[in-house]
Write a structure and sequence with these properties.
By secondary structure, this protein is α/β, with parallel strands linked by helices. Helices cover 47% and strands 14% of the residues. It is built from 9 helices and 5 strands. It has a 5-stranded parallel beta sheet, with helices on both faces. It catalyses: NAD(+) + H2O = ADP-D-ribose + nicotinamide + H(+). It is an enzyme of class 3 (hydrolase). Its EC number is 3.2.2.6.
Length: 188
């Protein structure tokens, strides 16, 4: 007799998200863009928050559906400048899935990716789907320099980076908080 073990809650959430993306017709070029993308999805997540957890389940579920996913820890060309490779991967993707976790704003790399993704979105070249995992778009992400989980990280960044760079991160975080996405609890 065989028993089917239910998937972990992270896997269940990832599979549900894939179903929702399929139903929304997300995997098609934005604004009738007919260029052939290299990737369907640019998966943005903070490594320590997402690896071996939700981002892994999401990546696996997307790949099982034959969706081409760019993920930096696997797909960065060796010997190439990281920022240029990431920038090109975003430009060569139909859309981005951003997994915003409590630690997301501690990473200047994640924040730089977010800025570029939001700029591409504003130009109509890129679709963006936020996943708020363990953070609230209204309480933690919107107006992040005033309150919420990201305030302390942004305060630290203000001591190290230029005003313009930090302001672009704050603007991008506030902008993404107003895009309909998915809120996933830490239990998923």
């Amino acid at each position: 007799m065989t028993t089917n073990n239910p998937p972990s809650t992270g896997a269940s959430a990832a599979l549900l998200l894939i179903l929702l993306l399929d139903l929304s017709g997300a995997i098609c070029p934005a604004n009738g863009d007919r260029r052939r993308p290299r990737y369907d999805v640019f998966l943005s997540h903070r490594g320590p928050d997402g690896r071996h957890k939700f981002a892994d389940h999401l990546d696996s579920a997307l790949r099982r559906k034959r969706i081409k996913v760019f993920r930096d820890d696997r797909d960065l060309p060796r010997g190439e400048k990281v920022t240029e490779a990431i920038s090109r991967a975003i430009d060569e993707s139909v859309f981005s899935l951003l997994v915003l976790t409590p630690g997301f704003a501690s990473s200047e790399y994640c924040l730089d990716e977010l800025v570029q993704i939001m700029q591409s979105r504003e130009k109509g070249r890129h679709r963006t789907f936020p996943i708020f995992k363990g953070v609230s778009p209204d309480d933690d992400v919107a107006d992040p320099s005033s309150s919420g989980l990201y305030k302390a990280d942004l305060d630290r960044h203000k001591l190290r980076y230029s005003y313009e760079r930090v302001a672009s991160w704050i603007h991008a975080l506030d902008s993404i908080s107003h895009i309909a996405g998915w809120e996933i609890t830490d239990q998923m």
